[in-house]
Amino acid sequence: MMLRLEKKTILILELKEKTQGVFKMPLDNIGHVSKLRGKLDKFEAIGNNTKKNKFCYDRYIEAKKKNELAGKIVDICGVCYSHESMNGYMKNLPLSLDKNEILAEKLLSDLEIKQFFFLQSFFRFNHHGELLTELVDDNGVTIKTFPKYNMIENYCRIAEYNPHCTFALWTKRTDIIKRYFDKREKPKNLIIVFSNTKVDKVISKIPKHFDKVFNNVNGDNFKEIQNCTGQKCKDCLRCYKHSDKLDDNIIVEKTK
Ligand code: SF4
Questions:
Q1: 139 C-alpha to ligand 1 centroid (Å)
Q2: Which member of 120, 149, 156, 244 has the lowest number of beta carbons within 10 Å of its beta carbon?
Q3: How far is CA 194 from CA 20, 136, 191, 221, in A?
Q4: Taking the model in full, what pTM does it have?
Q5: CA angle in degrees (0–180, nearest 5) for 181-49-81
Q6: Per-residue pLDDT tens digits for 80-102
Q7: Does ligand 1 have an atom closer than 6 angstroms to the CB of 251?
């Protein structure tokens, strides 16, 4: 009887050992992981509330003015899908995304990072919102400031904890990416996509520490190099794979 009990205990201990880091630790849930549909069908993602993110708030206002003045879309942030969907049919989404403020608030402990284990091969960072450094109220007034590099460091740690998965981060924040990766090694499974705000101005030079550039064009402009338009990411994966070919790294999509 004694022997049987000991064997069982050892088995449980072995199992615990093996599954450490594979299954989430029994902590309170940290953050919010979104399950995506449409173009990003089958993807999971971590994002934040665009309406409260100062960078996004300011860009939206500025870009809307530019578009109005030009009488057409010249700045993609002025027709921000995220902002407009949160004002419209996705009214409850901001509440869930607010939970990810924790990624800007502090550097997560090793135990907390274990909450972010993904059984996926590809994962999206910032499907909504930019790298978060400041929160604003409904009038755009700053109500909270976070350490500038917390979110990017937490994303790096999450990527390092999931070496089986490739993470793609879309950002316009060269001020963070350049400074940060001048000093920190970038995880090999983190792809950083520079999000070009200027519509119909295709950038084909990749900024330092970025891996790809995402460009938007109106209608049939640059049709011969549109390599994203009309596709689903799961069928394409161009943004989620490292490549030496320029064509794989300069992405061009028609504005919706
Ligand atoms: S190029 Fe491919 S992977 Fe990248 S956004 Fe377009 S469809 Fe998705």
A1: 34
A2: 244
A3: 35, 24, 10, 20
A4: 0.88
A5: 95
A6: 999 888 887 777 889 899 999 99
A7: yes
